[in-house]
Design goal:
The protein is α+β, with helices and mostly antiparallel strands. It has three helices and seven strands. Helices cover 26% and strands 26% of the residues.
Length: 171
């Protein structure tokens, strides 16, 4: 009976590892995914390619990744959330930038505490919490020298108070 449970558990673990590896290798190249998501009128290919290839290379246990295109004005949708496994855009939205990064366009970026400028680079979503701006998501900066002070700067994403709009908050 114990032997049967051990074999069953080993089989389940093997199947899980195989499934995770199969998922990572099953994802198409950036051009194919870009085309399947029908993004040509929303996101530039070069920005999508960088985000998607980083996601594929540094994949963990999720199929979700995001992209913010700060070359677009804050009056346009420039924040996308994708599900690579389902090959779907989960949503796109408006997103603000740090107060001292510019008005309509984010032009200045910083990794310094209290700069009130947006930090560019790759982030990993961390824990959620409920704060003064409502439901919020802490971010960990993964790009050395560009955003690795994200925790010290309290870089988070939270709702902006208007439906379907998000704000990134930076100190």
């Amino acid at each position: 009976n114990n032997m049967f449970r051990a074999v069953k558990a080993l089989f389940a673990l093997t199947l899980f590892v195989f499934s995770a590896n199969a998922f990572a290798s099953y994802l198409p190249g950036a051009k194919t995914m870009y085309s399947q998501l029908k993004l040509s009128h929303e996101v530039s290919y070069d920005k999508f390619e960088k985000a998607y290839n980083h996601f594929k290379t540094h994949k963990d246990d999720t199929s979700i990744f995001t992209l913010i295109d700060y070359s677009k004005p804050s009056s346009q949708k420039r924040f996308w959330v994708f599900d690579a496994a389902k090959r779907k855009t989960l949503f796109s939205s408006y997103v603000s930038h740090g107060k001292n990064s510019g008005s309509l366009y984010a032009k200045d970026f910083s990794n310094r505490v209290n700069s009130r400028q947006t930090s560019i680079g790759v982030y990993r979503a961390a824990e959620t919490y409920y704060g003064k701006h409502g439901y919020s998501l802490r971010l960990d900066g993964l790009s050395k020298g560009l955003n690795d002070n994200a925790r010290k700067r309290a870089i988070v994403i939270h709702g902006a108070g208007r439906p379907h709009e998000w704000s990134s908050f930076s100190h």
